[in-house]
Amino acid sequence: MKPNTISTKIKLIGILFIILMTSIIITTIYLNDKNKKDALIINIAGKQRMLTQKISKNIFYLYQNSKESYSELDSATVEFIYNLNSLKNGNNLIGIIKAPTDDIAKQISKVEILWNNFYSNINSFKGIIINRTPENETELKSIVKSIYNTNNTLLNEVDNLVSMYTSYTEEKTNYLKYIQYIFGLTILFLMSYSFVQLRAMEENAKKFLELSKKIVQNPEGEHLEPIQIEAEKEIVEATDTINCFINKINSAMTYSANAVEQSKNASIKLEEITDEFDVIINELTNSAEISKHLDKSEDMVIQTQEELINSTKKLQELKNELDKLLNSCKTK
Q1: Collapsed DSSP state (helix, strand, coil) of residue 91
Q2: CA distance 26 to 151
Q3: Nearest to 299 by CA among 268, 277, 282, 266
Q4: Residues 6+ apart with CB under 8 A from 284
Q5: SS3 category, 174
Q6: Within a 13 Å sphere around the CA of 77, how many CA atoms are in the beta-carbon half?
Q7: C-alpha distances in Å from residue 17, one per residue of 13, 25, 94, 162, 189
């Protein structure tokens, strides 16, 4: 498939448009899906921050009111552990992946280490608060203080984790947006290229029609000029076909004109010969035998002259038919 053809150019432009539009659609769908998942991950990471505060608040509340239910504390603790495992290892159930970068994975591990210490203090607090006595009050107070201090550190590291997820999501979103911008610019370039190519094809077609009209408007009796044009393959092939027809017409016109001219010259020569024979016949009137042979010769010459005249007429009719063909083309 040659590149300099109208069909190839149109197919190439169409294929590029389809590829680019498909890429933009796929990128947009992917970006929207990732944004939803990233928003879910950031929401889970942000919720960990709220859960640490909720757990600490429940610890302080139960420390003051040891007879209250532990259900809220247990619920918050279980949810924190579930979310932390989801961030670390991924969770197909809710559609999130594990830590996407090494830095985020390291930060999750840091949070996990702090959480293990924090969780150990929670369990120790629960074990003592159930059997609270004046003897273990000092130990209980020490655990509550440790939970308070650990909570602040854990809260700061969870904040850092949320910030890292947010930065990662923004960078990825910006990267995908840049790809969309590149696709958009490429489409604009392709549109400009398509416009230029279509204008070039249109100009070549107009040039072809103008040269064709000049052939039709060619003065009668003059040879037709072949079309010379640089264009797409289809137009060049059409031009070659017309030029072949033009060359045949020019050849036929040249042949007929030469034949008519030669026939006219032959007729003139025969007339001269006939006149000479008339003179000779007049001089030889005393010889009957010679006169007889000369009469036969004169008849043969006259017959030959008539045949040449008929040939001349036929050739003239051929030339007239060719002229009619040209005239019919001019009227179309």
Answers
A1: strand
A2: 44
A3: 277
A4: 290, 291, 294
A5: helix
A6: 18
A7: 6, 12, 36, 40, 11
pLDDT tens series, the chain, 332 aa: 445 677 777 777 788 878 877 877 887 787 777 777 778 888 888 888 899 989 988 888 888 886 777 788 889 999 999 999 998 888 888 878 888 889 999 999 999 999 999 999 888 888 887 777 777 788 888 888 888 888 888 989 999 999 999 998 888 888 777 887 887 788 888 888 777 877 877 777 777 677 666 666 665 556 666 666 665 666 666 666 766 766 666 666 666 666 666 667 666 766 766 666 566 656 655 555 555 655 665 666 666 667 667 766 766 766 676 666 656 655 55
Gap between the Cα atoms of 40 and 97, Å rounded = 11
Give per-residue burial for 76-92: e unless 16+ CB within 10 Å, then b.
Answer: bbebbeebbebbbebbe
Q: How far is CA 146 from the centre of its chain?
A: 65
- Triad 37, 112, 63: Cα angle to 5°: 110
- The position carrying tokens 């000369």 is 294
Q: How far is 114 from 256, CA to CA, in rounded Å?
A: 109
Residue 236 CA: distances (Å) to CA of 5, 87, 226, 227, 229: 10, 66, 12, 10, 7
Residue 232 DSSP SS3:
coil
